[in-house]
Amino acid sequence: MILAGLSLRDLEYVVAVAELRHFGRAAERCAVSQPSLSAQVRKLEEQLGVALFERTSRKVLLTPCGEAIVSQARVVLDEARRLLALADGSDGGLVGRLRLAAIHTLGPYLFPHVLPPLRARWPDLTLILSEGRTDGLLEELRDGRLDAVLLALPVEGEGLTAEALFFEPFLLAHSAGHRLCGAPGLNLNDLDPSELLLLEEGHCLRDQALAACGLTARGGGVHATGLETLRHMVAAGAGCTLMPLLATRTAGGGAADVGGLVAYRGFDGDPPGRTIGLAWRASDPRARGLADLAGLLRGRLPAGTAAA
């Protein structure tokens, strides 16, 4: 096989199909027609002499050989981006495209706050935003599918750099007629564990809420798939929950109270909460620019949070 026959663009096509498991959506991501993308993938398979995908009328699956080749294709594409960053002469600054993700319980509430200063600082930077759960986002970060992740610290694992941005306190979210409405103060030991509503397993906020209340992992019961569902469960009178500060506000800055059915209260003394940070690969040639991004975010703290 001739090395010159390999194209970085073809590798991008293959990685897109592998990630999306769909030729049509992969073509949309790569801004080409589906027939063109399919033809190039077929051509690459012929050049390599292996089938990368198992195609059916309903789904697309990676073959065992395809898994290995796609993994290596990500490495090749990541190194190609490093080459472009070096050739650009940016000296580690942020140029081109930045794939920035955040955990589900943070992204929708923090992105509106950080995008204006970020766009003002790097107007030519192309931002690709996404959300996910901590474990999945860190896997994508290590594999080179993401460039930086906003998440709750600490971050475990080698090869990553993480900088703390701010401390976000948790508030108690309860229904408007809850027994704690008229209480003069609020402490964690005032909560009834049987009333505590949680996110489903896999969300780091679930573990943080349990730890804050001094509880061990709890199975059974009713769990929410996301914060908005959790908020509406509280509004329906199903119980109470710990809600991150940023998630208690609307885009306009008011309380997200679901028509007055939800109330929020802060805790006395040192409140429970989480430290939000920015993580990236230590080997990324744009490390200086990512550190600058962390500094920018740290300098624009959301109201009610504290410097970490």
TrEMBL record:
Native species: Azospirillum picis
Name of this protein: LysR family hydrogen peroxide-inducible transcriptional activator
Residues of the HTH lysR-type domain: 6-63
Domain of life: Bacteria
PANTHER family reported in the protein's UniProt record: HYDROGEN PEROXIDE-INDUCIBLE GENES ACTIVATOR, TRANSCRIPTIONAL DUAL REGULATOR HCAR-RELATED
Keywords from the UniProt entry: Activator, DNA-binding, Transcription, Transcription regulation
Protein family per UniProt: Belongs to the LysR transcriptional regulatory family.
Entries under InterPro entries matching the protein: LysR_HTH_N, LysR_subst-bd, WH-like_DNA-bd_sf, WH_DNA-bd_sf
